[in-house]
Write a structure and sequence with these properties.
six-stranded mixed β-sheet, four-stranded antiparallel β-sheet, elongated, binds adenosine-5'-triphosphate
Length: about 290
């Protein structure tokens, strides 16, 4: 509770070990608060929370097994890339050859090996995110909490981050990650969509799509949209006209052929429903 605001409210979540779990939801829906509650940084006014089999009240003893990357800047701006990594390694008692190997491995992964002598405070936004991720992973945590880790990271590197997250999960590590990007959510085993501190919908991306029951639709560019729309309606199709574009809900792809026997569009494209639309439907927004 933040001055009367229930940032988390009636939230029941079970995250299996070894899963990639994505937290989605609009700004202020409670994603960061949930992550902070897991690491024991927020005192819960009620409810129960267990982390890696332990009650959250003793979560601090689990810190060596947890990696938390905050949404905001948490590194030392006046230390270099290498020094930040060394500092975090030191916190977890990693030294000698192991420290050297681990730092080299991670800097390679986030493509910062050539920038190891730059001050963290002088890195670009995306580079800073990459260094934050590398520092979070230094002690090979088995539970990873990553709050919007790919903000500002370029597409190619984002892809390699996700391959790495999948690899961590396949090694049995649990990766909880918040994002606003649907293509990232689609890569996760379970997606939880939060709204106003609650879990509005949860499931695998396929389950969410099925649950929302959204149908694909065909968008048609027609010479005479109104005339063709009435023709299609008289054949029993659900048709919508807006901005000169005609949209038809279809149940199965075979209907496209039938539609083309009724009308001759100038152009057309098939739009499959997106995960975003599915979530909006399930949470009652659309
Ligand atoms: N320390 C705090 N004091 C007061 N209110 C807070 C505090 N932290 C969070 N809140 C409020 O709790 C709600 C949930 O915030 P939270 O940061 O968890 O959202 P979020 O889903 O992470 O949003 P975003 O996508 O913008 O990161 C918001 O209304 C926010 O203003
Ligand atoms: Mg947040």
């Amino acid at each position: 509770m933040f001055r009367g605001l229930r940032a988390l409210d009636g939230l029941t979540v079970r995250i299996p070990r070894g899963a990639t779990y994505c937290l989605l939801g609009p700004n202020g829906s409670g994603k960061t608060t949930f992550i902070r509650a897991i690491v024991g940084l927020i005192r819960l006014d009620g409810g129960d929370l267990h982390v890696l089999g332990e009650h959250v009240s003793s979560v601090r003893s689990l810190y060596p097994r947890i990696g938390y990357m905050t949404q905001h800047r948490a590194l030392y701006p006046d230390l270099t890339v290498q020094e930040n990594m060394e500092f975090f390694a030191g916190l977890y008692g990693i030294d000698g050859q192991r420290r050297k190997r681990r730092i080299a491995e991670l800097l390679e992964m986030v493509e910062l090996s050539d920038h190891r002598d730059r001050l963290a405070g002088a890195l670009s936004g995306g580079m800073y995110q990459r260094l934050s991720l590398a520092c979070t992973l230094i002690h090979e945590p088995e539970l990873l909490l990553l709050d919007e880790p790919t903000v500002g990271v370029d597409p190619a590197l984002r892809q390699s981050f996700w391959m790495y997250f999948d690899q961590l999960a396949s090694e049995g590590k649990t990766v909880i990650i918040s994002t606003h990007l649907m293509d990232e959510a689609e890569k996760c085993r379970i997606v939880g969509y939060m709204r106003s501190g609650r879990m509005a919908a949860e499931g695998s991306p396929d389950e969410i799509m099925q649950l929302a029951g959204l149908k694909p639709h065909l968008e048609l560019l027609l010479e005479d949209p109104e005339r063709d729309a009435s023709l299609l309606r008289s054949e029993g199709y659900e048709v919508e006209v807006s901005g000169g574009v005609v949209r038809i809900r279809i149940d199965k792809h075979a209907q496209i052929k039938e539609i083309l026997e009724i009308i001759s569009p100038l152009d057309m494209r098939l739009r499959e429903p997106s995960l975003e639309e599915a979530f909006l439907t399930l949470s009652g927004v659309a």
